[in-house]
Amino acid sequence: MTTMKKPTTRRQFLAQTAAVSAAAAIPYHFTSAQESTKSKSKNEQLQFALIGVGGNGTRTAPVGKEFANLVALCDVDADHLRDGNQLLTGGKADTYSDYREVLSRDDIDVVQISTPDHWHAKILIEAMLAGKDAYCEKPLTLTIEEGKLVRRMQKETGRVVQVGTQQRSSFDKFNKALAIIAEGRIGKLKRMVVGIDGGGWSPEIPAVAVPDALDWDRWLGPTPEMPYRYLRHPSKEADKGYTNCHTQFRWWYEHSGGKLTDWGAHHIDIAMLGIAAAGQNNDPVSVDGTAKHAVDFKDGIPVQTDRYNTAQGFDLHVAFADGDVEMSIRHDVDNGILFEGELGRIFVNRGKLVGKPVEDLASNPLPEDAISKIYRGMPMKQNDRPAHWENFMYAIENRVQPISDVHSHMKMLNVCHLAGICCRLGRKINWDQSTEQVVGDELAHSMMSRPYREGYEIDMS
């Protein structure tokens, strides 16, 4: 039987703050292994719900089904909900259009949040207050201030939250690259180049009638009211057209941070972990550089509202408290991370790990525990998405921080958010890590948060 604690309800939360705060203080490093949750019978497994049944939800939920029972699905698009239920459960799961009905169910232990980015923080915070553990897709937040609130609520509720940055669970490439750095094989880290590709482009996209199956108001949620836009792409399927909704929401600052919080949330994450693995200080100090947009900006707000507005290209530079290391973020280099040290260089992405220090492993292999150290001593039985979910289940059963915890994730994601502010304002952004504030720029500081649309504020009751 699972050793997971009974979920904390909203009422219990207020009474148990002291106790769960102590639980949240459990150290990150642990070494005990146990039977994989995957091998448990269906009656022993936890029950989970999928909130957001679009493309990424249907890709990740089948992995989650190996470890927990999928009993409920929620989406504001009735077609997504119907098709997703048939694909994932053969039509057997309970379905909802309002995620609050899912959170109110005492029999649901875990939620997977696979909505568009602008919904992540609100649903996650309310899920933690409802006593649910959560697997939330990246990026965890739309703003820096949301991240502060998410981290505070995780500490106060003691819930386990795994962020969907599954590259942290890739043992054969990313963790091996970090182990090479940690073992000193490239020497002191000097420079990193992070390639994350350019953003999307669109022509003018007309405002059209909302599809019958879509609750557009609820899809927009906390973000500003705007018309639904769609234009058929001349060479793609109908559901891949130009739009400010499904599949293309990442190209709108209203809903996302573009490539900087999409691929950036993966590769900048590994780059910052690399600085830490080298024993150097990865506290960000500033972000500077240039960006290319297809729209004009006034005080950081897009002037044109009928086309994609996130950065199409960028050449950004991040400075850290360790002044000996710097990071470039570019759209015009290979997708992946180049680490340059005093003794050598390596390049890693999802397809390869290359460089002379990698070749030298044939004659001088890493110590047996090198990758285990990077993975915080947790059991490692699989790779990538399955490993990421298995690690999530392990963290739930042991009430410990998972490999992609909200705290280290947000330190990295703040760099992505600062890069986005830099792109929108076209100037250097200075950052004080000790106070987690933009300094010396009132407008940039104000962009650390965004107002929620009336009726869609975070429910902290």
From TrEMBL:
Residues 205-457 form the Gfo/Idh/MocA-like oxidoreductase bacterial type C-terminal domain. InterPro entries: Gfo/Idh/MocA-like_OxRdtase_N, Gfo/Idh/MocA_oxidrdct_glycsds, Gfo/Idh/MocA_OxRdtase_bact_C, NAD(P)-bd_dom_sf, TAT_signal. This is Gfo/Idh/MocA family oxidoreductase. PANTHER family: BCDNA.GH03377, OXIDOREDUCTASE FAMILY PROTEIN. Residues 47-164 form the Gfo/Idh/MocA-like oxidoreductase N-terminal domain. SUPFAM superfamilies: Glyceraldehyde-3-phosphate dehydrogenase-like, C-terminal domain, NAD(P)-binding Rossmann-fold domains. It comes from the Bacteria.
